[in-house]
Amino acid sequence: MRTIDLPACGPGHSAPLTHVGFRPDGQRLATCSYDGTVIVWDTADPSRPTPLARLRHRRLVNASAWNPADPEVLATASADKTVAVWRVGARGRATLHTVLARHTDDINSVAWLPDGERLICVSEDGRATLWSTADGRFLAEVGSHEAHCMMVSVSAQGLVATVGEDGLVAVGDPDGPDGPRTRRYDSSIEGCAWSHSGRLLAVARDDGAVDLLTAGLDVVRTVPVSTSAARAVAWAEDDSSFVVGAYDGALHHFDVAGARLHRVEDRRVWPRSVAVAHGVVAAGSFWNGPHLYDLATGREIAAPDGATHGPNALAQHGDELLIGTDSGLVVAVRTDASGPATVRTTAFTDGPILSLATDGDTVYAGTYSGHVLRHDGTALTSSAGLGAPVPSLALHEGSLVAGTYNGEFLLLTPGALDVVERIEAHDGSVKSLTAVAGGFLSAATDRTVAAGGPHGRSTLWEHGNLVNAVAALGAEAAASASRDHTVKTGRITRLPDGAWRAERVQTLLGPDESVKCVALLGDAERPVVLAGSYDFGLHAWQVDWDDSAATLASGRVLAAFAQGLSCMLRLTDGTVAVAGWDGRILVVGLDPAGRPAVRRSLHLGELLTLPTTTTHRAGARPTESRAA
Known about the structure:
Elements: E1 17-22, E2 28-33, E3 37-42, E4 50-56, E5 61-66, E6 73-78, E7 83-88, E8 94-99, E9 107-112, E10 118-123, E11 127-132, E12 138-144, E13 149-154, E14 160-164, E15 168-172, E16 181-184, E17 189-194, E18 201-205, E19 209-213, E20 219-224, E21 230-235, E22 241-246, E23 250-255, E24 260-266, E25 269-277, E26 280-285, E27 291-294, E28 300-302, E29 311-317, E30 320-325, E31 329-334, E32 342-347, E33 353-359, E34 362-367, E35 372-375, E36 380-382, E37 392-396, E38 399-403, E39 408-412, E40 419-424, E41 430-436, E42 439-444, E43 448-452, E44 458-462, E45 467-473, E46 477-482, E47 486-494, E48 500-509, E49 515-521, E50 528-533, E51 537-542, H1 548-554, E52 556-560, E53 565-570, E54 576-580, E55 584-590, E56 596-603, H2 604-607, E57 612-615, E58 623-627
Parallel strand pairs: 32-57
Antiparallel strand pairs: 1-2, 2-3, 3-4, 5-6, 6-7, 7-8, 9-10, 10-11, 11-12, 13-14, 14-15, 15-16, 17-18, 18-19, 19-20, 21-22, 22-23, 23-24, 24-58, 25-26, 26-27, 27-28, 29-30, 30-31, 31-32, 33-34, 34-35, 35-36, 37-38, 38-39, 39-40, 41-42, 42-43, 43-44, 45-46, 46-47, 47-48, 49-50, 50-51, 51-52, ...
């Protein structure tokens, strides 16, 4: 397993924050990150959070939990499939106490039992397991899900609640004789939190609502929160209110009766995790540190001081390669195979750009905050809020198509960015769109790859898990990348009745983890497929449509990155640009024998140190707080 190796970003993190966790006294805050580290901050003065200790895993860290019986003990859970237990002293000296035996998949969440001696771990393998932290012994399996188990919360009475992508909520007593009680929802549940009294369990639903449940899983109240999925919940210490982080990019504060108290929007915030202690709210970030707010008013107390520039999207703009980043910068690089790079940056927004598309001199960007931005070289225009992040864009027959986390295609006017039509396209987030002659391809978390126009689409094939990306070679071949650790590729044709069909579909093996991005090179009769994975590898296959066994044997690792790969783009000259979250940008082409080879290697961090031309910045304020 390769280890994350990212350059430092000041005293904070080098990549977005995945989790925040207050110690119960509010004096310490642990933040976890995609950079593979946990930082423990001194928050005695919440206006000046100060780093005390930095703890390291080999892969991204998903969660942490402070021990309820010993305030110096912290558990951390990682995609390296381990849970580590640390002792962090008053002066920040950190020592590793134990590492729980290697799990079979990424650990998404951890929680202590009230005795402070046992720890519950939940994993992407669907299991909830109980461990003794004194000696690292496995004690029992206390629950299981049919898909990824996303979060665990333990009540003051020792009841364990787990939720997962299978829509299951399970509550049980690991010391009791009976199995867990369950409640099933129609879609993924990613967050849950017991109130401090243990009387209520808040469950964050994929449809944007939060259910307040009894310990017996009866619904006390359903609270509509957002137009996009609710992701995380945290309770005030007196259980009178709770804070919800949602995929609309906002923090929502409600009283226990379901009345909205206030809402905080900041495009730098990544609200996949929230925490509350002593009247202070902490939230994750796409920048290098936590965001802290006053619980009562939503007023900002402290914010991170540095942007991270992980690349999320690529596009071609004339002879420039455009790179959309976590910081909201679009970096334009003009380069050939041997000449020096020249760089131009445009600050579209303060939050992540998830997708890019171009039409002549016009550049479109889809954002995590749920907007589409248009830059025509002079002025920047923003759509109204679309209600969900926009991870995919494509141009089709005079319309701009935006694929959203809500599973919709939104048809926008290319000029004013007005929404003309909303179409329920997939049963999950539309992760990727690719224009082809006569239509466009789409990939989604409902496991499908589809083709056609905005309506009446044809399913080309399905994966065993969500699909992260789809790519095309003209309108003759396509490939897709999935969390099931595979790439699929096939010949595609459009039938006389307008439907689309896939033939000679092959499954390509190689990556050991989720495959994030994909591209095709060469000729459709014998293409080369490139794919980037969370295993840090750039994989390549030579496709033989008549001999799938030969294709299977052809897979190899072309290059290794220092973090997962994020996006790819087939360029007009027959090469492919490949970006990793470590900031590395490769240009890959075919050698005279038709084999893929790296032609150019650049690094985004180094490019941003070159003399640059900076253009228009978004006019919207980065932070807004609105009363109910």
